[in-house]
TrEMBL record:
Cell compartment(s), UniProt: Cytoplasm
The entry's keywords: Cytoplasm, Hydrolase, Nucleotide metabolism
A single GO BP: nucleotide metabolic process
Protein name: dTTP/UTP pyrophosphatase
Family label: Belongs to the Maf family. YhdE subfamily.
Positions of the record's site feature: Important for substrate specificity: R17, T75, Q159
Function summary: Nucleoside triphosphate pyrophosphatase that hydrolyzes dTTP and UTP. May have a dual role in cell division arrest and in preventing the incorporation of modified nucleotides into cellular nucleic acids.
EC annotation from Swiss-Prot or TrEMBL: 3.6.1.9
Main location: cytoplasm
Cellular component per GO, a single term: cytoplasm
Active site: D74
Amino acid sequence: METTTKKRLILASGSSRRIDLLKMLGYHFDIVPHSIDECIPDSAFPEELVRNLAFLKANNVAGKVNNAIIVGADTVVYHNNNIISKPKDALEAKKILSLLSKSEHSIFTGVCMIDIPSKKKLLRNERTRITMRHIPEKEIEAYVDSGEPMDKAGAYAIQGEGKNFVEKIDGSYSNAVGLPLELVQEMLYYFVNDADTKKF
């Protein structure tokens, strides 16, 4: 039986969007979903909230693995000083999309990396500004009926049909999907040098 002491890269998420994004960096990684309750207080500052939740996710998985770098992430939509969560039902999805129509909102993603066993930790966040065009009620209804908005913060998927509502993107596109790849790459370099990253 082959043994190895190679450090593992672990994504503390079962999100298909984050899995697909991290694959784009070309690393081999394992998936160990976190088991925390993602409670979002209404009064939280978005930057602080996403960093805290990213840390809780990474730290939750850190206690279950050895010799690894764990990546935790959390994303929220922020509009008019309010955090917009995932819609609970179709009616709420329609209300959210009506709210975002013809206005600007921000997408914040917090990223936490924890090295085990050293317990070195990095916490960062990324912001992307999105401007939406006017979305007629009929388009909102058809989009909600498609089911795409139901598990998405802000009730739309910028990588899916939701892209048709976007007028302008200011910042990282991958952050708007759910994981800022440029930031993730930069953070990985903190833990391992260029040659070592090829081991993942």
